[in-house]
Amino acid sequence: MTDTAQNPLETFAAVIRDLTDTAERIARIEEVKAEAASLRQHNRLDGLIQDEQAQILKLRGLEQRRLKLAEALGWKSLTFRQILETASPDETEPLAPLFFDLEQQLKRLEQARSSSEQIIQTRLHEMEVFLARQQGDSYDSMGNLNTGSPAHAKLQNKYV
Question: Residue 128: what are its φ and ψ, rounded to 5°?
Answer without folding.
Answer: -60, -45
